[in-house]
Design a protein that fits this description.
Blueprint (H helix, E strand, L loop, with lengths): L4 E2 L2 E2 H29 L4 H9 L1 H5 L1 H16 L4 H30 L9 H25 L5 H29 L4 H4 L32 H6 L5 H5 L7 H24 L5 H28 L1
Antiparallel strand pairs: 1-2
Helix pairs in contact: 1-12, 4-5, 4-6, 4-7, 5-6, 7-12, 11-12
């Protein structure tokens, strides 16, 4: 009997990650504020990781595009145009998200000031991300096994759909909760006067004010994309359980470090981090299982 896998790993791995998130939520529900008082402390290395750490997660978008490209191209010449479009889309999504969330840091390095500096500097900041992700689809395509094109298509589509879905669900939940960030609270004379636990929601208070978008953590939505990495290694030419396990362990370490960094940099509470991880993990798991089930039936 074939063992059940979720995101390229045995189901027990999924249960362990989910259990850790639940334990974190329970602990944070009791000690959120005190944990931040103990751990929060902005540092330069923390700022660097907060800006560029997401690069590794976003690499999964062009990698997913490569899976779709190779899978569709293998199925016949008539799919070639669609294959190219989806490959470009995967690359563009990585560039778009990086430029949207972290582009201001690169523009600051280029001394760009909106309305004053040359538009060329703004274009250059966008090209920075474009070049940074340009190698991913080509290298991934070389590593992929063409023997099962349907599986390649399922993997690529699952990652793209799950990524877009989780990002939008996260944005919606931030408005539902409108929870104040710790970095905003510590600017007040009495931080605890406006502190709210995650369940004390005030829908639509946040609006466009980032200070009230603490729960759930959007950056953890980005970081959790790494849990789909074993799906990518699982369709490599020399795929193996060992490679998938290595990818999973790397994802776990990456997500844990990312989560600590969000608290350390005063952006989130422990429950924000754990909910962001759990919600995204569930979305990716459900969408991936739905796509992979069609391949297994075939």
């Amino acid at each position: 009997m074939k063992r059940k896998t979720i995101l390229g790993m045995p189901a027990v791995c999924f249960k362990i990650v989910a259990a850790v998130c639940v334990v974190g939520i329970l602990i944070g529900s009791l000690y959120d504020y005190r944990i931040n008082v103990a751990l929060a402390n902005k540092t330069e290395i923390g700022s660097f990781f907060a800006t560029y750490g997401s690069y590794f997660s976003y690499c999964l978008y062009p990698a997913a595009g490569a899976c779709l490209y190779v899978g569709l191209k293998t199925k016949g010449e008539r799919y070639k145009s669609l294959a190219i479009i989806l490959a470009v889309l995967g690359w563009f999504m990585a560039v778009y998200y990086s430029n949207s969330y972290n582009g201001k840091v690169v523009r600051a390095l280029l001394a760009y000031t909106a309305g004053e500096s040359s538009i060329f500097l703004s274009v250059l900041s966008w090209l920075f991300w474009a070049v940074l992700y340009s190698w991913v689809p080509f290298v991934t395509a070389k590593l992929l096994d063409e023997k099962n094109p349907d599986k390649l298509i399922a993997v690529g589509a699952a990652i793209l759909v799950a990524g877009i879905t989780s990002d939008n669900v996260n944005l919606w939940l931030k408005q539902v909760a409108s929870r104040p960030r710790y970095k905003y609270l510590i600017t007040l004379d009495n931080p605890l006067s406006e502190y709210r636990d995650w369940w004390q929601m005030v829908p639509n208070l946040a609006g466009s004010n980032d200070n009230f978008k603490s729960w759930p953590s959007g950056n953890m939505t980005i970081a959790c994309m790494m849990f789909a990495l074993p799906m990518i290694t699982g369709v490599f030419k020399k795929a193996s359980d060992k490679k998938n396990l290595t990818a999973f362990i790397f994802a776990c370490i990456f997500v844990a470090v990312y989560g600590y960094n969000r608290i350390h940099m005063t952006n989130h509470f422990l429950t924000d981090v754990c909910f962001g991880t759990l919600i995204t993990y569930l979305i990716f798991a459900l969408i991936a299982m739905a796509f992979m089930k069609t391949v297994e039936k075939d």
